[in-house]
Amino acid sequence: MTFMPLQQITPDRVGEAICFIALHNSNHRCMLVDDNEAGIRSDFFNFDIEPTRDIYFTSSKDDSSITGLVGLLVEDGKAMVVGPWASEASGLQGLMAGITDVARSRGGILSLKSGMVGAIANPVFEGAGFTFLRNDLDMQLRKATLPVVKSNPDAFCSLLRPYPDDLESHKQVQRIHAALFKSRDYNPDNWADKFTSEYLNWVFACQLDGNLVGYSLCMRQQDSVYLVNIGTDEKFQNKRIASSLLLFIRKWFIESGFRDLTLNVHTVKEHAVKLYMDVGFEVKTTAFCWEKMLD
Questions:
Q1: What is the pLDDT along the chain (295 residues), one digit of tens a residue?
Q2: Could you tell me the maximum CA-CA distance found in the chain, to the nearest angstrom?
Q3: Residues 227/83/28/30 CA torsion (nearest 10 deg)
Q4: Cα separation of 201 and 199, whole Å?
Q5: Model pTM greater than 0.85?
Q6: Among residues 253, 237, 268, 243, which one has the least CA distance to residue 201?
Q7: CB atoms closer than 10 angstroms to residue 257
Q8: Are 262 and 224 a contacting pair, CB within 8 Å?
Q9: Per-residue H/E/C for the chain
Q10: Is 138 in contact with 262 (CB distance < 8 Å)?
Q11: Residues linked to residue 227 through DSSP beta bridges, in sequence order
């Protein structure tokens, strides 16, 4: 099959593109968490993906039907590939070459996270100049029989009221997050924006002896809850703070009527993987992370 050059999705083809992703996402996992049209539309909203701005497609020269899709997200100078999805393996190479050209003007590092493995994916990504980094696990907890896990009996966990209520607690969460991840993603200037955009729906906090020592950030994805982050103040490590938070969130999500609780974790974080499995999470899919330095 002969493919047309990469081009941006137009408004009249957004529906066709979403149907295409739903059809091909089950075997070609990427950062999106759902394989149905409603879920994909929700994911586009949650990840601030605007199809006519961020999604590109190739089509057949024969009938102009979509044969491949790939997206590009750029934030704070970092570029990430979304997808790719292709009706034929032979179309993947063109998708990767095309989106690399689109990203090249941005400079820096281009990252990729995909569920494609083995003989199909490796030559394509390596041929496009990507270097393999690590595996990530997409994990899921459903309302089955849940294991009993030890927690800290002195820990008090709660769901914070939306910012700017519980202002001091939100400030403490920001402080712990910044110290752990050296990140400015959740600073006082954009904390309220995260809630306004519905990226952060819930912030959980854990207190010990009157001090806020741990937190978790969660977002809603249709009838599921996605655990964005969990962290413990470095001075209170190894005191079962994370276990206490996870048990509180586990109880809360069940009582709130959600379908499941999901998260993503690097496989190199063996302690975290074990903790999640102890609480009742199971591995849903394995994603493979790649990156490429752009000229």
A1: 566 788 999 999 999 999 988 888 765 455 444 567 777 887 777 677 888 999 999 988 777 889 899 989 887 667 888 888 888 877 888 888 888 888 887 667 888 887 765 567 778 888 888 998 888 888 889 876 678 888 889 999 999 988 778 889 988 998 888 888 765 555 556 666 665 555 678 999 999 999 999 999 998 877 889 998 899 999 998 899 999 999 999 999 989 999 889 998 988 788 999 999 999 999 887 888 889 988 7
A2: 69
A3: -10
A4: 6
A5: no
A6: 253
A7: 8
A8: yes
A9: CCECCCEECCHHHHHHHHHHHHHHCCCCCCCCCCCCHHHHHHHHHHCCCCHHHHEEEEEECCCCCEEEEEEEEEECCEEEEEEEEECCHHHHHHHHHHHHHHHHCCCCEEEEEECCCHHHHHHHHHHCCCEEEEEEEEEEEECCCCCCCCCCCCCEEEECCCCCCCHHHHHHHHHHHHHHHCCCCCCCCCHHHHHHCCCCCEEEEEEECCEEEEEEEEEEECCEEEEEEEEECHHHCCCCHHHHHHHHHHHHHHHCCCCEEEEEEECCCHHHHHHHHHHCCEEEEEEEEEEEECC
A10: yes
A11: 218, 263
Structure tokens at 22: 């739903």
Determine how many CB atoms are found less than 10 A away from the CB of residue 164: 10
Task: Count other C-beta atoms under 10 Å from residue 10's C-beta.
Answer: 12
Paired tokens of 55: 């999604």
